[in-house]
Specification:
Rossmann fold; 2 domains; 10 strands; 48% helix
């Protein structure tokens, strides 16, 4: 009977799940996902998480607890760095240790992933994890190569304008209907933020669907190739330490220069230190470029009515601006 590996639908799930899924399946494991985010998961996370962490980490607690009793192993890699001379959020680094204090969970796979000095470190991490499932270095290597191929295919689908759930469905051959093209008269709005804030429909109260219903066509950082993001981020006087913040800023600066993008919406989590600074940099740049900008901060107390009011006002402003009634 294959080992069951639990993966929470939280944090870097929206970046790397296709890669992780293929790697474990190629090694003969069964991948088990936590259920989609919901009120019960968040309530459980709030009850067990420390007060100081941000909302996405509190929700991640709930996802991890949901996998208790469903899996033999829990995949929570210790993400230190996923890019040369850059770091990931400190909460990600300490998340496995925060989770370990909870009793009754499956054994953790908390392999250290640190690409700060060399991207070759990923091979060591893959081999370390692979040894739990196979004694064959060749089999582990082939599983890793196939997982990288799946990740590259996933990124290409995102750059074609698909949302992560749509791209994942295509890679898993469970597509029923491809998304319809956006109406020609829609306003293109750049949604800027971490993937776990943008794509988790519960945590953000389905903001993408809401904006589309109001006449917006959504673009995100994941729609852009890495070279475009990196090139745009060079306008900063100094490179940011945080990979995700660097990507957010680069995407925002790229979209600000595009005449087809009507405005930017930045989604941040309350209590996120890097977001507070990155968001300020983006907002200042938007002001200086005359680009409409809306900042939304999420926490466990954010109300749906208030969010809808702000989105409606923002979309009304874009329409008035297009009609020439107001100028920035």
């Amino acid at each position: 009977m294959p080992l069951k590996v639990g993966i929470p639908r939280a944090l870097l799930y929206y970046y790397y799940y296709p890669m992780w899924r293929v790697f474990f399946q190629e090694l003969g494991a069964e991948v088990v996902l936590s259920q989609p985010s919901n009120k019960g998961l968040l309530a459980n996370g709030l009850k067990n998480a420390v007060d100081e962490v941000c909302l996405p980490v509190k929700l991640a607690y709930g996802h991890v607890l949901d996998l208790a009793g469903k899996s033999d192993l829990l995949f929570l890699p210790r993400m230190v760095s996923i890019g040369r001379r850059e770091y990931i959020c400190p909460k990600f680094l300490g998340f496995p240790d925060m989770i370990r204090r909870i009793k009754g969970l499956p054994k953790l796979i908390d392999t250290n992933i640190n690409l700060y000095k060399s991207s070759m470190e990923i091979y060591r991490a893959a081999h370390e994890v692979g040894k739990l499932f196979s004694g064959s270095s060749y089999k582990i290597w082939m599983a890793f190569l196939r997982s990288v191929k799946a990740h590259n295919q996933y990124c290409k689908l995102l750059q074609m304008g698909l949302m992560p759930t749509e791209a994942m469905a295509i890679l898993e051959d469970r597509v029923e209907n491809l998304p319809l093209p956006e109406p020609e008269d829609s306003f293109k709005v750049a949604l800027i933020g971490h993937p776990y804030n943008i794509y988790d429909t519960y945590i953000n109260m389905n903001i993408i669907k809401r904006l589309k219903e109001m006449g917006a066509s959504i673009v995100t950082a994941e729609f852009l190739p890495d070279h475009a993001v990196n090139c745009a981020s060079r306008c900063l006087p100094k490179k940011l330490f945080w990979t995700l913040g660097q990507r957010m800023a680069g995407a925002a600066f790229n979209y600000m220069k595009r005449p087809d993008v009507a405005g930017l919406v930045h989604i941040a989590a309350f209590g996120c230190g890097p977001d507070s600074m990155t968001g300020e940099l983006i907002e200042r740049s938007a002001r200086s470029n005359g680009v409409p900008f809306l900042n939304i901060t999420l926490d466990e107390h954010t109300g749906e009515a208030g969010l809808l009011t702000r989105l409606e006002a923002f979309m009304d402003m874009l329409r008035w601006r297009k009609a020439g009634a107001i100028s920035m």
